[in-house]
Design brief:
122 residues; mainly beta; Thrombin, subunit H; four-stranded antiparallel beta sheet; globular
């Protein structure tokens, strides 16, 4: 992962690396590229084969892991940044998380969903 200064010829400011995610035994692999940024911009959430990894954008360190056991292949933040929705096609479910704490706010069946486009305002 890299932080890039978009105002100065896309200069790389700093980088961090993490060990690759491996699906749990018998778990389904997730599609790559499922990321969302918290409303305050202080937490980057990354979906993977074993849940969601929360990374501090200040320190570029893993803060916690959420939804262990879920193959998360889609993430999208609500317009106000107070919720992040995680899709697991393998489970046929969508979960709502608090991006600041990782608390599960709820989940719903989504058996035909293959990706998340956006979170519409209620």
């Amino acid at each position: 992962m890299s932080e890039i200064d978009g105002h100065d010829q896309f200069t790389v400011l700093r980088t961090a690396s993490f060990p690759p995610e491996r699906p749990p035994a018998g778990g389904a692999p997730a599609r790559p590229g499922s990321v969302a940024l918290s409303g305050g911009g202080d937490v980057l959430l990354v979906g993977g084969s074993d849940g969601v990894v929360a990374i501090s954008t200040e320190s570029l360190r893993v803060q916690r892991r959420d939804l262990a056991g879920w193959a998360v292949d889609g993430l999208v933040a609500s317009a106000d940044g107070r919720r992040v929705y995680a899709l697991s096609s393998a489970r046929g479910r969508v979960a709502a998380l608090d991006p600041a704490t990782g608390n599960l706010l709820g989940e719903r069946p989504a058996p035909a969903a293959t990706f998340l486009l956006r979170a519409a305002a209620a």
